[in-house]
UniProtKB/TrEMBL annotation:
It comes from Pontibacter anaerobius. Keywords: Transferase. It is an enzyme of class 5 (isomerase). The lineage of its organism: Bacteria, Pseudomonadati, Bacteroidota, Cytophagia, Cytophagales. This is chorismate mutase. Its EC number is 5.4.99.5.
Amino acid sequence: MQLMKFNPTKSFFTELQAGQGHPLVIAGPCSAETEEQVMQTAAALKQQNVHLFRAGIWKPRTRPGSFEGVGSKGLAWLNRVKRELGMRVAIEVATARHVEEALKQEIDVLWIGARTTVNPFAVQEIADALQGVNVPVMVKNPVNPDLALWIGAIERMYHAGVTDLAAIHRGFSSYQKSKYRNVPVWQIPIELKARYQSLPMIVDPSHIGGKRDLIFPVSQKALDLGYDGMMIETHLTPDKALSDAEQQVTPDALKAILAKLQVRKTNY
Ligand code: PEP
Ligand code: MN
């Protein structure tokens, strides 16, 4: 087995925030809902120097019957964000078809969601679709606390020639009662980082916390551990969001959270 020798000192992700002295900020709604919502959210986030705009268009919902995303038509909305606001845009991909559609529309960054990282067949299909393309990819941890599955998904991307990689820590499912929606189990990402020191680490406090109040403390903890950035779900009217309503914050609330965060350490 050829082990991943991940060692880029410069990558898309480190360059995005280069010289700014503050962490990488990825923000945007859990789901793209309407063209207006996407454009208005992105415009508000551009004011805050958000580095990368996120929006899910294909939503992997745990149970059927809830909003499953607007689908391919959302790609054109993200294209408008890119063209008219000059922001970079990221979406979740879960199949080879998603990758092909995203690449046709020049989406800047793809991410693999927690429900996909658990499935090596799905991850390999995505890797095959990315062969020879080298678009930046962020890999969320699997829903279950399994470091090897997380590493395996990152390796599959790397072996497909993807060198601009980042890991997103979004916490792990647990049947135990907890204040978190997904328990952070910080040792797992710490172990990942110990193995791949140049791999950018991004925290997703929205899915870890599951509620607005936990976004600040979870982000601060991650920064104290030396994380490179965070992905925070942002909605114009969070209570009316079609997915993850309780954990989304307004652009103004995001601004307040970012202003309060302190970078106290730079290394693990
Ligand atoms: C999301 O980012 O909206 C999402 C579905 O996240 P996760 O894959 O972490 O559950
Ligand atoms: Mn979400």
